[in-house]
Specification:
With 315 residues, this protein is mainly beta. The chain has two domains: 211 residues, Jelly Rolls; 86 residues, Sandwich (Jelly Rolls), CATH 2.60.120. It has five helices and 22 strands. Strands 1, 6, 16, 17, 18, 19, 20, 21 and 22 form a nine-stranded antiparallel β-sheet that branches. A six-stranded antiparallel β-sheet has the order 2-3-7-14-9-12, with no helix packed on it. The protein is globular, with a radius of gyration of 20 Å. 42% of the residues are buried. Bound molecules: zinc ion (ZN). The site of zinc ion has 4 residues, from loops.
């Protein structure tokens, strides 16, 4: 058992649609086209690393493989979650993810992907694509064949603090000018449905995966049914956005001091605003915007002090 939070060093991904906003979190980003910060990542395409304490230098994968007690001896062949912050300077392509069953069969044992978004910041009038308007599969196919994208795709205006649950099978895209924290199943399986007919510098379009997309898109579109719950503990307001089979995601708003207990197999805490300190056992750790802390199994009672906002996830 350890009562010290594990701070993770993220992995950054350059993307053609990325920008420079992740520098505002205090990160040294690789370029002005940095699209993704993989904060808690135990995937072959990116591994975040512990940067403090007795587990310093270990990847999240290694902890999952060899120190499973940190996660309450949870079962599973891979760490279940992936947390990212995305900076979209351009529109992302329109995508859909398969569910576990489809991905297992068609993507070599990969997991499906259900994800969700917390809008950290965005430009005025920023929009996402969230669902579609086809009532039947036939209508979906015909609208795609006729190129009726404007009629097909549902656009939703967003503002900071909004939350969207994106189950597998949902057509979706993050629009330009949006900074989002994404919590998802630990998977990188994406089918690109539409890319606005954009061409790269060489005049080529990115590959689309129309056939697989059509197989996995839910028709009619799934409506967002999550109910938001609030709970006040001392000076901490917890907003629970979603509790589903894959994850629970909540926001902590700290405005002073609060004493909490970690009773889950693990908690992933991403600080998106402000700063403070955490007192746990004999440890006192300061935290600030841009930090990502894993509180392991058996972490016990801890105290938070400061003014901060965090996005927190667990199973
Ligand atoms: Zn996605």
């Amino acid at each position: 058992m350890t009562t010290e939070p594990l701070f993770f060093k993220p992995v950054f991904k350059e993307r053609i649609w990325g920008g420079a906003a992740l520098a505002d979190f205090g990160y040294h980003i690789p370029s002005e086209r940095t699209g993704e910060c993989w904060a808690f990542a135990a995937h072959k395409n990116g591994q975040s690393v512990v940067q403090n304490g007795m587990y310093k230098g270990f990847t999240l994968c290694e902890l999952w493989e060899h120190h499973r007690y940190l996660f309450g001896q949870l079962e599973g062949d891979r760490f279940p979650l992936l947390t990212k912050i995305l900076d979209a300077d351009q529109d992302l392509s329109v995508q859909v993810h398969p569910n576990d069953e489809f991905a297992n069969i068609h993507e070599n044992g990969e997991l499906g992907k259900t994800e969700c978004w917390y809008i950290i910041d965005c430009e005025k009038d920023a929009e996402i694509i969230y669902g579609h308007n086809a009532k039947t599969k036939e209508e979906l196919i015909s609208m795609i064949e006729l190129g009726e994208w404007e009629e097909l795709l549902r656009r939703v205006k967003v503002k900071p603090g909004d939350f969207f649950y994106v189950p597998s099978g949902t057509v979706h895209a993050i629009g330009k000018g949006i900074l989002v924290l994404e919590t998802q199943q630990n998977s990188d399986t994406t089918y690109r449905l539409y890319d606005y007919e954009r061409k790269n510098a060489e005049g080529n379009m990115r590959e689309l995966h129309l056939e697989k997309s059509l197989e996995v898109i839910e028709v009619p579109s799934i409506s967002d049914r999550h109910t938001i719950q609030y709970e006040q503990t001392d000076d901490l307001l917890t907003t629970t956005f979603v509790e589903c089979a894959y994850f629970t995601v909540e926001k902590w708003r700290l405005t002073g001091a609060a004493t909490l207990k970690q009773q889950k197999p693990f908690l992933l805490v991403s600080v998106i605003e402000g700063e403070g300190r955490m007192i746990s056992g004999v440890n006192i750790n300061t935290f600030k915007k841009g930090d990502h802390m894993l509180l392991p199994y058996g972490f016990g009672v801890f105290k938070l002090e400061g003014r901060a906002e965090c996005i927190v996830s667990h199973l």
